[in-house]
Amino acid sequence: GVTTNSAGEEKWIEVSLSEQRARAWEGDKLVMEFPISSGRWSPTPTGTFHIWYKTRSQTMSGGSQELGTYYNLPNVPHNMFFYKGYALHGAYWHNNFGHPMSHGCVNQPLANAAQIFDWAGPTVPEGQGVVLASADNPGTRVYVH
After folding, report:
1. What's the rounded Cα separation, in Å, for the pair 88 and 79?
2. Has residue 34 been placed in a domain?
3. pLDDT per residue as tens digits for the range 58-117
4. Residue 56 belongs to what domain range?
5. Which tens digit of pLDDT belongs to each residue from 5-20?
6. What is each CA distance from 131 to 64, 69, 128, 136, in whole angstroms?
7. What pLDDT is attached to residue 67?
8. How many domains in the chain?
9. Residue 92 maps to which CATH number?
10. Does residue 3 form part of some domain?
Protein backbone atom coordinates (compact mmCIF):
# COMPACT_ATOMS: atom_id res chain seq x y z
CA GLY A 1 0.00 0.00 0.00
CA VAL A 2 0.87 3.66 -0.27
CA THR A 3 0.34 6.43 2.28
CA THR A 4 -1.15 9.58 0.79
CA ASN A 5 -2.13 13.10 1.78
CA SER A 6 -5.67 14.44 1.40
CA ALA A 7 -4.95 15.27 -2.26
CA GLY A 8 -3.97 11.65 -2.97
CA GLU A 9 -0.25 12.40 -3.37
CA GLU A 10 2.16 9.78 -2.00
CA LYS A 11 3.86 10.60 1.30
CA TRP A 12 7.48 9.40 1.37
CA ILE A 13 10.63 9.95 3.38
CA GLU A 14 14.08 10.54 1.91
CA VAL A 15 17.21 10.00 4.01
CA SER A 16 20.40 11.38 2.46
CA LEU A 17 23.44 9.78 4.09
CA SER A 18 25.90 12.06 2.25
CA GLU A 19 24.04 15.19 3.43
CA GLN A 20 22.96 13.72 6.82
CA ARG A 21 19.45 15.08 6.22
CA ALA A 22 15.91 13.70 6.19
CA ARG A 23 13.16 15.08 3.99
CA ALA A 24 9.45 14.32 4.05
CA TRP A 25 7.66 14.64 0.72
CA GLU A 26 4.06 14.69 -0.46
CA GLY A 27 4.42 13.86 -4.14
CA ASP A 28 7.14 16.25 -5.31
CA LYS A 29 6.42 18.85 -2.59
CA LEU A 30 8.87 19.09 0.33
CA VAL A 31 6.96 19.30 3.63
CA MET A 32 9.72 18.73 6.24
CA GLU A 33 13.51 18.78 6.23
CA PHE A 34 15.94 18.44 9.14
CA PRO A 35 19.42 17.13 10.03
CA ILE A 36 19.88 13.51 11.12
CA SER A 37 22.68 11.27 12.35
CA SER A 38 23.04 7.95 10.54
CA GLY A 39 25.29 4.97 11.20
CA ARG A 40 28.82 5.55 12.41
CA TRP A 41 29.59 2.28 14.25
CA SER A 42 27.74 0.25 11.64
CA PRO A 43 26.21 1.49 8.38
CA THR A 44 22.61 2.53 7.84
CA PRO A 45 21.12 0.24 5.13
CA THR A 46 20.47 1.90 1.77
CA GLY A 47 17.60 1.24 -0.60
CA THR A 48 13.83 1.61 -0.71
CA PHE A 49 11.87 0.31 2.28
CA HIS A 50 8.49 0.81 3.95
CA ILE A 51 7.86 1.49 7.63
CA TRP A 52 6.71 -1.86 8.97
CA TYR A 53 6.42 -1.16 12.71
CA LYS A 54 6.13 1.94 14.91
CA THR A 55 6.49 2.37 18.68
CA ARG A 56 5.90 5.55 20.66
CA SER A 57 8.73 4.68 23.09
CA GLN A 58 11.02 1.73 23.78
CA THR A 59 14.46 0.66 25.03
CA MET A 60 17.17 0.33 22.37
CA SER A 61 20.22 -1.81 23.12
CA GLY A 62 22.97 -3.55 21.21
CA GLY A 63 26.59 -3.30 20.22
CA SER A 64 29.46 -5.11 21.94
CA GLN A 65 30.93 -4.63 25.42
CA GLU A 66 34.24 -6.12 24.18
CA LEU A 67 34.46 -3.54 21.39
CA GLY A 68 33.23 -0.69 23.57
CA THR A 69 30.19 -0.12 21.37
CA TYR A 70 27.54 -1.44 23.80
CA TYR A 71 24.52 0.81 24.35
CA ASN A 72 21.32 0.54 26.39
CA LEU A 73 19.03 3.53 25.97
CA PRO A 74 15.65 3.58 27.75
CA ASN A 75 12.60 5.46 26.49
CA VAL A 76 13.80 6.10 22.94
CA PRO A 77 10.94 8.12 21.41
CA HIS A 78 9.07 7.90 18.10
CA ASN A 79 10.52 4.75 16.54
CA MET A 80 9.67 3.97 12.91
CA PHE A 81 11.25 0.68 11.85
CA PHE A 82 11.96 0.51 8.11
CA TYR A 83 14.29 -2.52 7.79
CA LYS A 84 14.62 -5.30 10.38
CA GLY A 85 15.76 -3.54 13.59
CA TYR A 86 16.74 -0.30 11.84
CA ALA A 87 14.54 2.68 12.69
CA LEU A 88 14.15 6.40 12.35
CA HIS A 89 13.78 7.69 15.94
CA GLY A 90 14.32 10.61 18.27
CA ALA A 91 17.69 10.93 20.03
CA TYR A 92 18.00 12.64 23.43
CA TRP A 93 21.61 11.52 24.13
CA HIS A 94 23.39 13.81 21.64
CA ASN A 95 22.83 17.04 19.74
CA ASN A 96 25.39 16.40 16.98
CA PHE A 97 22.88 16.09 14.13
CA GLY A 98 24.40 16.42 10.68
CA HIS A 99 27.17 13.94 11.59
CA PRO A 100 27.08 10.10 11.71
CA MET A 101 26.62 9.08 15.36
CA SER A 102 24.49 5.91 15.47
CA HIS A 103 24.79 2.14 15.31
CA GLY A 104 22.83 2.14 12.04
CA CYS A 105 19.54 3.76 12.98
CA VAL A 106 18.60 7.25 11.82
CA ASN A 107 18.77 9.59 14.85
CA GLN A 108 16.49 12.63 14.63
CA PRO A 109 16.08 15.78 16.75
CA LEU A 110 13.25 15.18 19.23
CA ALA A 111 10.75 17.72 17.84
CA ASN A 112 11.31 16.55 14.25
CA ALA A 113 10.99 12.89 15.28
CA ALA A 114 7.62 13.59 16.92
CA GLN A 115 6.36 15.52 13.89
CA ILE A 116 7.36 12.95 11.25
CA PHE A 117 6.11 10.06 13.46
CA ASP A 118 2.62 11.57 13.47
CA TRP A 119 2.80 12.36 9.72
CA ALA A 120 4.01 8.95 8.49
CA GLY A 121 2.11 5.68 8.25
CA PRO A 122 1.14 3.34 9.68
CA THR A 123 -1.00 5.42 12.03
CA VAL A 124 -0.72 4.40 15.69
CA PRO A 125 -4.28 4.04 17.05
CA GLU A 126 -5.33 6.54 19.73
CA GLY A 127 -4.36 5.26 23.17
CA GLN A 128 -2.01 2.63 21.73
CA GLY A 129 1.79 2.56 21.83
CA VAL A 130 2.64 0.32 18.87
CA VAL A 131 1.35 -0.56 15.42
CA LEU A 132 2.28 -3.00 12.65
CA ALA A 133 1.75 -1.91 9.06
CA SER A 134 -1.13 -3.63 7.27
CA ALA A 135 -3.02 -3.38 3.99
CA ASP A 136 -5.53 -1.06 5.68
CA ASN A 137 -2.85 0.96 7.53
CA PRO A 138 0.22 0.91 5.25
CA GLY A 139 3.73 2.05 6.07
CA THR A 140 5.22 5.12 4.43
CA ARG A 141 7.97 4.52 1.85
CA VAL A 142 11.51 5.30 3.04
CA TYR A 143 14.28 5.91 0.48
CA VAL A 144 17.79 5.84 1.98
CA HIS A 145 20.69 6.82 -0.27
Report:
1. 6
2. yes
3. 999 988 899 888 899 999 999 999 999 999 999 999 999 999 999 999 999 999 999 999
4. 11-144
5. 999 999 999 999 999 9
6. 29, 29, 8, 12
7. 86
8. 1
9. 2.40.440.10
10. no
